[in-house]
């Protein structure tokens, strides 16, 4: 019997390492591939460079231990143009992007599928916590919640296409992080207790404003804080340093808690409000990718999330203007942020998702 061949994206972390182990244990012919994504033009600090090389070394060591082939592929230019430049442009335009979502669809999956084809492999696989199944009512591929909800990563994967899903395996969908680390220890993987990677891999210190200024080689221009009535109440230090709902780090004392309500790049202006003003029931999103459903007819009852760590909330969803979805939540949601994702679920399955506007 010919073994099915699978290319596993190996980041050097415990999740992808255990995913490779489980697939080999199931009888697949496993090939490990590590993508070098961010060392563009040498524009990294030493700590970041060391992190990249360490990830490659860890993935190679795990592959050697598992007895599988390991390759490194360079996708720095694709990552720079499709993820980093996008991230910078969105922030400059007053939005708060989720670069992981863009990277998943347009870099990681496209890159992995290209490698898969080159190796004559049948599937690609990742260490994400989620499950790929056909939605019972339509037969379309969808991503289903991981069995262990506190580790579920489906939100960041909503943009994958039907073709990408049809060729993807996610072995960790029935596991929790504790289980994965336990397996890694039992088989003697050196990465068993390796810390999880940072959320945004190309900004090591989480200082987005400084990263953007350095990348653009210019200082962001200061502008005005205004209240909900447009009255001047202080000066901000450049719109890239703020996001909707932010309270800390405003740099001005107002005598009461104030939060970012809206960012107006055309005026270089930031509107501040009190906490209760951040809540709203209606959220709109564009650039919709459908999974479980091919489209939405009329209005449907569903649940949705407006950020990664957001709990699903009941809502009614419909399509307006052809390419925009309207999500009406039962309960007001706090700080729906332009640039972030709205992901709609039918139970455990992703129906669709898009970019909040």
Description:
This protein starts with a strand and ends with a strand. The protein has 357 residues and is of the alpha/beta class. β5 and β6 (141-144) form a beta hairpin. It has 7 helices and 17 strands. 26% of the residues lie in helices and 29% in strands. The model has no long low-confidence stretch (mean pLDDT 93).
User: How many extended strands?
Assistant: 17
Q: What is the element string, with H for helices and E for strands?
A: EHEHEHHEEEHEHHEEEEEEEEEE
Describe the biggest sheet? 6 strands, antiparallel, barrel
Distance N to C terminus = 51 Å
Report the average pLDDT across residues: 93
- Give the class from helix and strand content and strand pairing: alpha/beta
Number of helices: 7
- Extract low-pLDDT stretches: none
Basic shape: globular
Calculate Rg over CA atoms.
22 Å
Fraction of residues in helices? 25-40%
The order of strands across the largest sheet is: 12-15-14-13-16-17
Strand content range: 25-35%
Quick structural summary:
26% of the residues lie in helices and 29% in strands.
Any key phrases for this structure?
357 residues; alpha/beta; six-stranded antiparallel β-barrel; five-stranded parallel β-sheet; 17 strands
